[in-house]
Amino acid sequence: MESISFCDCDVIHEGTVEAVRSTLAGQDEYVRLATLFKLFGDPTRVRILHALEQHELCVCDLAALLGLTKSAVSHQLKALRLSNLVKFRKEAQVVFYSLADDHVKDILDIGFSHISE
Amino acid sequence: MESISFCDCDVIHEGTVEAVRSTLAGQDEYVRLATLFKLFGDPTRVRILHALEQHELCVCDLAALLGLTKSAVSHQLKALRLSNLVKFRKEAQVVFYSLADDHVKDILDIGFSHISE
DNA sequence: ACATTAGTTGAACACCTATTCAACAAAAAG
DNA sequence: CTTTTTGTTGAATAGGTGTTCAACTAATGT
After folding, report:
1. Which residue ranges in chain A fall short of pLDDT 50?
2. How close, in Å, is residue B85 to chain A by CA atoms?
3. Which residue in the set A17, A36, A41 is minimally distant from B65, CB to CB?
4. What would the DSSP string read from start to end of A45-60?
5. Does the CB of B98 sit below 7 A from strand C?
6. Where would a tag sit more exposed on chain B, N or C end, judged by fewer CB atoms within 10 A?
7. Residues A11-36: pLDDT tens digits?
8. Cα-based distances in Å from A114 to A5, A110, B34
9. What single DSSP character describes residue B93?
10. Gap from B42 CA to C12 C1', in Å?
C-alpha cells in the first residue's frame, strides 16, 4: 500500500491521465472561466444581456421590458458590471446600460446556436 | 393613473422598449440558454469538460486527475450526460466519457479567449 | 461462491444565489 | 424647499447547488 491516494480508486490509465494533466490550466483559470459562464447561467441575466445586445437601455426600460422590479434589475446589472460584461453612461438621473464588448454577443450567439439543434 | 404597471416606474423610452421586445425570444429559450451556460458555470465541471476535450477518460481517471471522489465526478457527469454535453461508452465495467460534440469545445474556447485579455 | 473494484444513486448537509423589501442618495420638477 | 422619480444598496428569505456518505449494482478475478 505505497500508492498515494489521489482518489478512492486504483488508477487506471496512468499514461493518459498524465498526458492530459500536462495540458490542463491552473485551478484559478477554471474558477475564472466558471465565474464568467455563471453570469450567463441565469434566465434573467441572459434576457438582460440579449436585450442590451439590441439597444442600450436604462434600468426602467429593462424593468418594464422584462416585467421585473428596478431593484432586481439593478442587482443583476451590478453583477454584470463588476465582471465587465456591461458598461453604462449616466444622463441626468437616468443610467443607460449597454454591452461592454462583442465577446458578450459572441457567447450568447454560440449558446443560441447550440440550443437550436 | 391609467397606466398599466408593468414595473415600479413610469416607462421611459417606450419606442425603444417595444422595438427591443419584438426581437426577444420566448422565456423558454432563455431558460434553456441559462441551463446550458449553468453547466459551464462550475469549476469542477469545466475542468472535467476541458480534460475530456483532450482525451476520453473513465470516472477513475477523472477522479485521480482532478483530486475528487468517484461519487463527485459521477454526479457531475450525470448532469453533463443529461444535457448531452458528454457521451460515454462502456467497456467491461469501465465507463469512458468523452465530449458529445464540437460545440462544447467551441464554448470552452470562447470562454478561455474572453478571460485572457 | 466469494471478494474486489468501477460506477451509480439518493439523502443529508452546508453553501450559494436571486428576488423582495425598505431605506437611501441624487437629480429634476413643482 | 418640498416632492417625485431613477437608481442603488443591504438585509432577509426562499430556493437551488455541490460534495460527502453510505448503500447498492454489475462485472472481474480468485
Report:
1. 1-5
2. 10
3. A17
4. HHHHHHHHHHS-EEHH
5. no
6. N
7. 678 899 999 999 999 999 999 999 99
8. 39, 6, 12
9. T
10. 21
Q: How many CA atoms lie within 13 A of B57 on its CB side?
A: 30
The three grid cell numbers given for residue A66, joined into one nine-digit string: 422584462
Which of chain B's residues have a Cβ under 8 Å away from the Cβ of A63?
6-9
Rounded Cα distance between A15 and B91, Å, is 18
Residue type, B58: C
What Å distances lie between residue B72 and A3, A24, A105, CA to CA? 21, 19, 33
Q: Could you give the dihedral angle defined by the CA atoms of residues A65, A40, A36 and B42, in that order, rounded to the nearest 10 degrees?
A: 150
β-pairing, A94-99 vs B86-91, is unpaired
Q: Is the pTM of this model over 0.85?
A: yes
Rounded to the nearest 10 degrees, the angle between the axes of helix A14-21 and helix B43-54 is 110
